[in-house]
Amino acid sequence: MLELLPARESQLAEYAAGKPSTITLRSMLLTYWSHVSVIGFLFGFSLASSFAAYRLLDEYKLASATLQASVEELQQSTEKACGYLYF
After folding, report:
1. How far apart are CA 87 and CA 78, in angstroms?
2. 14: how many CB neighbours lie within 10 A of its CB?
3. What's the predicted TM-score (pTM) here?
4. Of 1, 3, 67, 86, most Cβ neighbours within 10 A?
């Protein structure tokens, strides 16, 4: 089994004895920075995903317009070919 660090053991002993524990500045900063980094990660991830979704939608519109133009061109050439067959 893993052994606890001496500082952590003393904090646990103080807590078990009912003594008020003191919160160190280091632990407050570590907690603060861990929250800030999680929030920063989530913000960056949402920003990147929204940009990717925008780009994907733009690409979809371009592909859809190209396909529509190709279908219209095929329809015109088919009508033209049918006109040659039926005089």
Report:
1. 14
2. 13
3. 0.52
4. 67
